[in-house]
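--- STAGE predict ---
source: upstream dedup step, 1 unique chain passed
mode: sequence only
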Amino acid sequence: MSNNNKPRLTLVLGDPCGIGPELAAKLLADAETTRLADIIAIADQQVFDEGVKIAGVSVNYRVVDDIADDDAEGIVLLSRPFFSSETSQRGKVSKQSGQYQLDCLETGLSLCQQGLAHGMCFAPLNKEAMHLAGLIHEDESGFFIDQLDHRGDFGLLNTLGNLWTSRATSHVSHRQVSELLSQESILEATRLLDGALRTSGLENPRIAVAGLNPHAGDGGMFGTEEIDIIEPAIKKAVDEGINAAGPFPPDTIFLMGRAGKYDAIVTMYHDQGQIAMKLMGFERGVTVHAGLPFPVTTSAHGSAFDIAGHGIANVSALREAFLLACSMVR
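--- STAGE serialize ---
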């Protein structure tokens, strides 16, 4: 690793048929942002250059065929894997783009595993395309876990400024949430938040835990998950030294978070947290793949096929993801 004391991050450009390449180009064209880290962009050079063209920016980079310890300062493009634009169309889902995304992610993770990078940031992916290419997991998280042979706690965290969230269940149907909810899943989501916030420099994170049912069950009148599952999980977290409280009614818990009363919120399912976070700041939201051996971050929005190629995509969320990865390395 170089001796310039800056973190080195891999940057994956996401779905080549979406807004990822132009977002990455806008990020890399911002000298105030990129001065914070050495960057290994992983992309077919044609995809990279097309993103630069769409974004209407200029990026000073070097192309390399492989990464050695001493040749990845500044911005370098590892021009692989190969992608043929003839097999895919911008704004459309394709098996070929899905395979390309998986190959790029695998390359980025491998460089981190080898100690040639400290973390990975990636632009929006397309899950449908990756499933067409053979992804067997609900999303990229399972792919990461398999590639890294990860056996510890893992979960998706979302951040918006100083407010963080985790979730006890993730990409599953609503009818499955109650079945999958457990004391352990809530405790794991709480631990991940506490650990990530402590790593980011917060000594005693204040964590609020949401209920599942309207009015947090209202004493069991609208469901007993709060009594049977959520309250015992919170007690276990407190016994471990985590500053957790709840369960709070889901329809008001984010008012407390927005007001700064809590640093983080544990939600019971995907949309319980994501709707609130995206309403408060869609253009700044970040997703953290927490629990892995190194930071992995991305913007919290999708590949936006409807505006791909127009050069109007907002880079703010990807920039926040990049900055967060830098801070987590340090």
